[in-house]
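ERR on first pass: missing label on line 2. Operator R.T. fixed the label and resubmitted. Corrected input:
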Amino acid sequence: MSSSFAGQKLCLTIFGQSHSEAIGMTLDGLPAGIPVDTDALQSFLNRRAPGRNDWSTPRREEDRPEFICGLRDGFTCGAPLTAIIHNTNTRPKDYSKLKITPRPGHADYTAELKFGGFQDFSGGGHFSGRLTAPLCVAGGLLKQALAARGVTVDARIAEIAGIRDEGAFDASVAEKPFPVVDDAAGERMLLAIQTARAEGDSVGGVVECVVRGLPAGIGSPMFDGLENQIARLVFAVPAVKGVEFGAGFEAARMRGSEHNDAFCVRDGRVETVTNHAGGILGGISNGMPLLFRAAVKPTPSIARAQQSVNLETLSEETLTVEGRHDPCIVPRAVPAIEAAAAIAVYDMII
Amino acid sequence: MSSSFAGQKLCLTIFGQSHSEAIGMTLDGLPAGIPVDTDALQSFLNRRAPGRNDWSTPRREEDRPEFICGLRDGFTCGAPLTAIIHNTNTRPKDYSKLKITPRPGHADYTAELKFGGFQDFSGGGHFSGRLTAPLCVAGGLLKQALAARGVTVDARIAEIAGIRDEGAFDASVAEKPFPVVDDAAGERMLLAIQTARAEGDSVGGVVECVVRGLPAGIGSPMFDGLENQIARLVFAVPAVKGVEFGAGFEAARMRGSEHNDAFCVRDGRVETVTNHAGGILGGISNGMPLLFRAAVKPTPSIARAQQSVNLETLSEETLTVEGRHDPCIVPRAVPAIEAAAAIAVYDMII
Amino acid sequence: MSSSFAGQKLCLTIFGQSHSEAIGMTLDGLPAGIPVDTDALQSFLNRRAPGRNDWSTPRREEDRPEFICGLRDGFTCGAPLTAIIHNTNTRPKDYSKLKITPRPGHADYTAELKFGGFQDFSGGGHFSGRLTAPLCVAGGLLKQALAARGVTVDARIAEIAGIRDEGAFDASVAEKPFPVVDDAAGERMLLAIQTARAEGDSVGGVVECVVRGLPAGIGSPMFDGLENQIARLVFAVPAVKGVEFGAGFEAARMRGSEHNDAFCVRDGRVETVTNHAGGILGGISNGMPLLFRAAVKPTPSIARAQQSVNLETLSEETLTVEGRHDPCIVPRAVPAIEAAAAIAVYDMII
Amino acid sequence: MSSSFAGQKLCLTIFGQSHSEAIGMTLDGLPAGIPVDTDALQSFLNRRAPGRNDWSTPRREEDRPEFICGLRDGFTCGAPLTAIIHNTNTRPKDYSKLKITPRPGHADYTAELKFGGFQDFSGGGHFSGRLTAPLCVAGGLLKQALAARGVTVDARIAEIAGIRDEGAFDASVAEKPFPVVDDAAGERMLLAIQTARAEGDSVGGVVECVVRGLPAGIGSPMFDGLENQIARLVFAVPAVKGVEFGAGFEAARMRGSEHNDAFCVRDGRVETVTNHAGGILGGISNGMPLLFRAAVKPTPSIARAQQSVNLETLSEETLTVEGRHDPCIVPRAVPAIEAAAAIAVYDMII
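pass 2 clean. output:
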């Protein structure tokens, strides 16, 4: 098994290939009686959809999940919930050359090895970023279920091409078309994206996610802590190459006296003065906002010619990846990161 | 369950508290016939032991695992392998005040919430860094099993207090008393640790780990990829607050043309010119060295007075953590990170 | 999670309700390159389909699985394999009274309690025997994969209404419309079924399954042995109330000298003279045919008036279950039992 | 993994070989704050211990579990609970011939195949019935935790050598030295055991277990129902070859009108008039006593000469198993079956 996340309570399975008849997901273990707002879910999915803006690939289709079971009159019924999204816009392009000449930065080569020649290369197969759509279906549903418990999950672009967005943020930022606090920084990011595209190149960035309202005492030490589970799920989003909590790698450069979050009492509640721990101590929530960041590598599909190898002749070759590609997938990764966090947190909270 | 890692084949359980009669681990699912070199294992465990040097806490005891089952004539016999380490040096100190006034940066507060007053606070209980000893027993055994397959797992100190160690490294570096390539940088790190200690403070750092000899094609996309599993295990090491693979967070600042690792042919084998991917594409090994880094926060136990709260009176209090503590746990985290990586990789390779 | 079987390698999820838009299954963890013969699969599914004969409910529809992902050119591609079956023949009958007056022998009452009023009662919801269709899709595929390795899984009716079928059997029996060795016994069983139906009643029986060609040495002691896993899967077939291996409950009445299977050498291979162990010793296959039986209770839906309770008024009520129902589901359980066995065995053999 | 049961919440690992330094178990996932009565636990373990009576093997030692972690002041502390039992009475007997000439009815042959010559044959290794001691430690603890919730788990001898015990029973029967309701039947069973022993033979039987006080609504359909989980655990007890719930295999011979349990109202509660379902409908408890039976094969170790094979020469040989052995293990299986049931039920109830 590779595409099933068996958590404490939930078993989430993501299925489909980029160009198979459909992609989808099943959430097993969801309690009965959770209301599902399909309009709100669609709005969430639209944040991930391609082609929303000129910095993204041209719009092709809306991702409309079809719930084939698990719902009754708008509520979960206790049976597994399955949603599928039909792949209507698959082009009968020839992907067979990826089998012979793998694209740098993609999984073509490793998939060929692992699946012994049976990999579905079309559109990247099961490795495609398109599979974040069913991840977002699952996560979007669980975001709603969390919100009903007063827990919110919001992310934003923290950095693109080295340009940072600073300041606190909430859902109003997460839902912006370009989710940054500082729109001026956002403009500079967009310019960097456009420049990269004009140069046949791409850029990466960092997504920051915050979970608010999580009760203190959720999680576990050792292998099933909040950090372990969130990291496990966030690395399911293609292109993520790093995950850090609270001060993260910056903590490595701090003194203990600086990094330790002093406890304090605010409005009769125990809190911490700072939040370098990102809301997690010993794998367990401490009641402060849970905060983490994920590093997103630059889109591997670029217009420039790249060096690859011909796996049949074992000789080096120049490869040019065709088609139009997102010069930056960070904006579309934002809801996927929220989804991954929502799945991890919901599984621990029920 | 929180302290059991149920992987593809292995189920590893870590048990014990800092001051319980014993701590230990069980590895279930290990094939029969694996030779165990207990001397080599002891050498590995000694790398983790406290008190080896003057930058660490004073030596108290050697961690001597006792194998109570699972071995026969020096080979695994197919039954679960259990090793325990007796806690001989537990002092009957009074830890009850941690229940009322939690230490900043520790799990005292969150454990109290989660375990509803039944937590074993003595020495940090199950949250103690001491539990990395059984993790190292498991990882040390699996490092041997991996080595028999030509796979090596080595780590070093990549950074302490902002001072970096550069350059490639191998086992000879990993096994140094202070595992850095550049001993001059190491001297500066040691000075920074001593300075922090003199000031009643602590410092953090970064551990870098490399897995060599891993065949290409190991791993999976989505939830059970190499990144997911390694991250899940590495976050089991207390104080780790971030994990990144290959270029990691730096990838976020690179262009695609720069980050993509061009394929090439060397000695008749497919390799990549650079290794920004850290040996992983789509969650699957590509045959290049698997490389990752973990951020280790500064030791939360510091000599300075800190602000905390009295959970009974809900008033703020000043707390001074007594006893002697490592001003920097990064050197001792090095073998623990190797252990975590070895467990993740071995589970995927068998 | 309840409808996901996370085995050693496979994760099988069964989804859908009797009258939801579709039902289906996902097999995650299947190796790439397994050929799928959809015609042979359809033949297998037809063995389970209702309405094949006059002892069954009238024919409504063929169960035609639609593979929406995981296949490429007739081979598994390594990505999760998902098949759905559309529920075309759902009648908009009113099932709301089952919520108030549960049917004896059905899960109406327990589902109402567990799902707090959100259960999808229509046609039995997720508890319906219809869900054995996706189980048979999974099992039918794995039967093919096993056959390619020389392992066959065949079942037959061993008993209906106390009438036994004796003698050894193989696939030719399993594939009969009424799968018994002794057709005369089969005639008596059919007569018993018709009599029960005429009397507004139903009968139960026993299914016997044999797995041949399983190599010796497959399985594990303790919790993950062949018996544990097969039993776990076979109890997923609704109406199964008992599972026994080899001599089973009859072993309880035997002497050790009689029950122990003496080892012998036949054609240079180690075998046993008898097979009271059903091919399993210590949870591990011994190379003899793996043999087990499952007890199937009489169909709970009967035409006769039955005593139930009104859950709103907490008063006793007489209930008459409407519609036509199988007076005996044993024949249709035969392929479902084969499917369960194939899933358990395949998961252990890869 | 084979000796780890990863349930909904709990992960139970059983470790040790018959003659290793120690055997034991770890329960991970147990809530903090559960009181442990070690005297009551010892009484429970004594029910399993050998040598209590003249129908059993001569007394050698008491099984005294040593809790090495997970307890604090008599309560679980939230960390994994590990107990070990030292093997003090291991005799340095030569078991090497079992490697060459396997005992009929034992796992010697299958273990040799599976573990490729590295199996620990001494005393049966990990396959030994001795491993039910740690199973009983886990189950005994959880029986206490269940009792605190009003749930009792009791078993009795339902049949030995074809002689049945009839009538309802409770804890007072379960705790008898020879746990039967009808002592006259018990006398006949004892006589049958003595006769078998005198003839160098052994007898089997059936254990019946009842769980009372289980709230309605516990369990799940499909793979994680009460039947699935109980069966999975009960088959971990060596020598069990069949498991049936409620009417079990007898249900196969009943009419639906007879088998269906009519609902009724008693003292304002919904109950059923009969309990052929054994308290389970659709995998979920219905509030009636949960009832199941397990078939226990006759002890495979018998004094008579038996036919085996020499695995080196591939020739048939006569084998005589030395030492004294229980001519009937059914009485000692009674607490082990209770333990298995308690583990399954507790895991589902928390």
